[in-house]
Design goal:
Elements lengths: L13 E6 L5 E5 L4 E4 L57 H19 L21 E4 L4 E6 L2 H6 L4 E7 L6 H4 L6 E7 L4 E9 L6 H12 L24 H21 L10
Antiparallel strand pairs: 1-2, 2-3, 4-5, 5-8, 6-7, 7-8
Length: 276
């Protein structure tokens, strides 16, 4: 990004933004420095649109996010009948995670009706991946793809981890995509369990590599069932049945094998003081 003239300021806060006439936009940061630009993009976030759903009849506050357990049952709802899957539960505001939660929710409702609910982590009735195996892709150029924990998130979760960086351009297959391919991978290793806790990839078309990283993270938690892996959208592989397709699951198991070969090359590298 620096080669393209992009300056990245991490941990920065804008204290004031102003513009004189049609001149450049000036942003004064909290540390006293000033940035000038043609345009400013402000990300204001999202709020829950639950004001007109009648939540008060279930003992919940209208206009608020709904707190749910891993079966998507709303905590504290009168009668225990209310479920919430998707953005309004504020767990993972991504389309593919909403679909994943919906499958767990539907299975949980049916199982509860039959008296066979099993809320165990990583089971068919629990959306456990929301906590530490969420995949996502930022479709910029170059792309940014991630699965599982970042290093700082893992440490905040109480895990003992180390981060290992590796240039993706050093992988033989990168030359098949483009001459002079430049990209970077950071793998977060859970030292106690000796599994991959997270991966972040930056480079051209890394979004296509992210499913294998997701599988590697999920298999560390639930080696018995790669079919519970969720895949980031949008993507060309989406179709009927989505991630429940047996053929797709088999394909990504093989893709994970190739990803793990990459990991093996630098698993035992000496950790560096890389920060978050």
């Amino acid at each position: 990004m620096r080669e393209r003239g992009v300056s990245v300021h991490t941990g920065a806060t804008a204290a004031q933004v102003s513009q004189a006439g049609d001149g450049p936009v000036s942003a004064q940061l909290a540390d006293g420095s000033t940035l000038a630009s043609d345009e400013v993009l402000a990300a204001a976030g999202r709020r829950a649109r639950t004001g007109d759903l009648g939540l008060e009849t279930a003992g919940r506050q209208p206009g608020t996010w709904l707190d749910v357990d891993d079966t998507m049952a709303v905590r504290g709802a009168a009668g225990g009948w209310l479920y919430a899957a998707g953005d309004l539960n504020h767990r993972a505001l991504l389309t593919h995670q909403g679909k994943y939660q919906t499958r767990a929710c539907g299975d949980a409702i049916a199982a509860r009706a039959r008296g066979r609910l099993d809320p165990a982590p990583w089971g068919p009735h629990s959306a456990t991946a929301d906590h530490g195996a969420v995949p996502q892709v930022v479709f910029t150029d170059p792309e940014v793809a991630a699965a599982g924990y970042r290093e700082d998130q893992a440490r905040d979760a109480g895990l003992r981890v180390r981060a290992v960086d590796y240039p993706i351009g050093n992988v033989a297959g990168a030359a098949l995509y483009a001459d002079g391919y430049t990209g970077q991978a950071r793998i977060v290793v859970d030292e106690d369990r000796q599994v991959i806790g997270g991966a972040t990839l930056v480079g051209p078309r890394v979004g296509a590599r992210r499913p294998a990283a997701t599988n590697a993270v999920v298999l560390g938690y639930a080696p018995h069932s790669p079919s519970i892996t969720t895949f980031a959208r949008p993507r060309t592989a989406a179709g009927p049945g989505d991630v429940r397709s047996i053929a797709q699951a088999v394909f990504y198991v093989f893709a994970t094998g190739f990803f793990l070969l990459l990991v093996k090359r630098f698993w035992h590298r000496k950790p560096k003081d890389l920060g978050s």
